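Input sequence (502 aa), recorded before submission:
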Amino acid sequence: MDSINGHDSAASPGKPEGIPDEHSGQTLDNVSVRSELESLRAAYLALQSECTRKEESLSQMIREKEEALKQNSDLLDAIKDVSRLQARSLEREGVLLREKEEIKRELGDSREIVEVLLKEKSEQSREFSQCLDAVKVIKQGMAKVISSISEEGEENQIVESEGGGEDLKVELKGISELVNRVRLKLDEFKEKGDKQRRELEQGLVSLTEENRDINDLLRIALVEKDTVERSLSKLRGNNEQKRGVILQIAERGLQRVGFSFGFMLGTGADELSSETSATASAASNSDGSDFDEEAVSLASTVEKIMKNMRLEVTQLRRSLDESRSEIERLKSLRELQTHKIEESTLYIKELEERVRMLTHKVEELQIEIRGAEKEVVRWRNACELEVQAGKNVSEEHEKVINILKQELEKLRAALQASNSKMKLKDELVASAIAAREAAERSLQLADSRSAGLCERIEELTRQFEEAEKRERANRRMIKRICWPWRTLKFHATQTNMVLVGI
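Predicted structure, token format:
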């Protein structure tokens, strides 16, 4: 452009000042094109700066969008964590409820076990009471047996010792003592019965011997009677001699009889002595009685003695039979008592075994009850601690859930705000993209116009060079033109055409 101006200034030294040159139209066109290019360059720079600013805002919006998406993903992760915590808390609550139900069921089972143990304990106490009653009955029976065997003082002693301890062991100990005493009493009674039996047998032997002696004496008396009768038949004339002989015979016979039975049988000896004295007195006082009467009285006396002896023998036999029957009864009673004592001993042993077993079982049950009570207390404390821990955990979970809900609400609000910002940013991005596209279109248009202007400038430069060439050629030719109307008209028309083309 400076070269053009230089050419213009150099080309018009010989022209007049008030008349425009033919190149002035071209200069104006160049100035307008230059100004238009400057304006286009400025618009291009403004559009470029605005485009860079839009790109920066777009990248910032993309970063904010990525951050929002990251926050959204964090929110989703937090929501998942909250849901997982809720599921875990619900699962924990379910586990706690199941454990609580299981503990309640175990408590019910332990209560049932305790009730069963209490029932068994009551049944065992009832069996104990029944055993104690049976033992008391056995003890009373033993006491009755001892009282029937023993004397009165011992019976009183047994009755006094009967009101002792009420415990089953004490009763069993008392029964064992009573059994031992019954055994001792039965042994004593057996020895006493044997002694009585031996005494009765000895009495029976002595009575048999006495009966044999009496028979011998009777035979001797009969022999002496025959002798007396023969002597009396010889002494029929003298009554005093007969009486003396009879009295001597009677006295001798009575002395024999009294000597034989006086030490054995007191009653028979007394009667015999009384009869002898009566006979002697009768014999001494009846001097004038007849010999037949004396013989009859002697026979009656002997007959009475024989009757008394028979009565005593029968009584002794009866007493012997009674003693034998008593011995048999005592033997049967002893066997029965021995059998009862054996049964009682076996029953006492069974009771002792049962008592030992029941005591062992009661101890085991008491140990089990104490263990069950300790287990129940432990389970109860564990349940309470577990329930308290579950409540604390549930409260903590609720607090965490509330905090997470608040954070979730905040994050939702932030997400909504970020979504609204994203929408605005998307709108801004869309507007920026539209502005960028418009700027690109304007740049393309400016490029096309600048290309057209460049072509126009080249064309004008070429024309200017051609015009200079013509001007050089015309300088050599002298033309006289007053005013270049046609040239100006031609250049103005071309300039308008160029502007319309742009």
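Checked by second reader. The longest helix spans residues 291-476.
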